[in-house]
Amino acid sequence: MAKPNYSFEKRQRELAKKKKKEEKLKEKAERKTGSGAADDVGPEADEAADGAAGGGAAGAPSGH
Questions:
Q1: 20 to 30 A from 17, CA-CA: which of 9, 10, 39, 47?
Q2: Nearest to 13 by CA among 62, 54, 64, 60
């Protein structure tokens, strides 16, 4: 039996998460164009929190 490639599986999960997040942000941006500027505060705060938590797990800080 072949040895599982966990790195490949992890990368695929990360790509799927990134794609889903981009789609959500795109949908929010489309909705925002029809509404007021009050939506600006929420997504930026959420995005900053997600970036801090997700970046540490993915190893992004080592890239800086």
A1: 39
A2: 54
Residue 57 in this model has a pLDDT that exceeds 90: no
Is 29:37 a contact under the CB 8 Å cutoff?
no
Contact 43, 28 (CB under 8 A): yes
- What are the pLDDT digits (tens) for 30-44? 998 876 544 455 555
| Section 12-18 average pLDDT | 98
User: How many whole angstroms from its chain centre is CA 1?
Assistant: 34
Q: What is the mean pLDDT of residues 8-25?
A: 98
**Is 55 in contact with 61 (CB distance < 8 Å)?**
yes
* Cβ atoms of residues 28 and 39 within 8 Å: yes
Token pair for residue 18? 């990134």
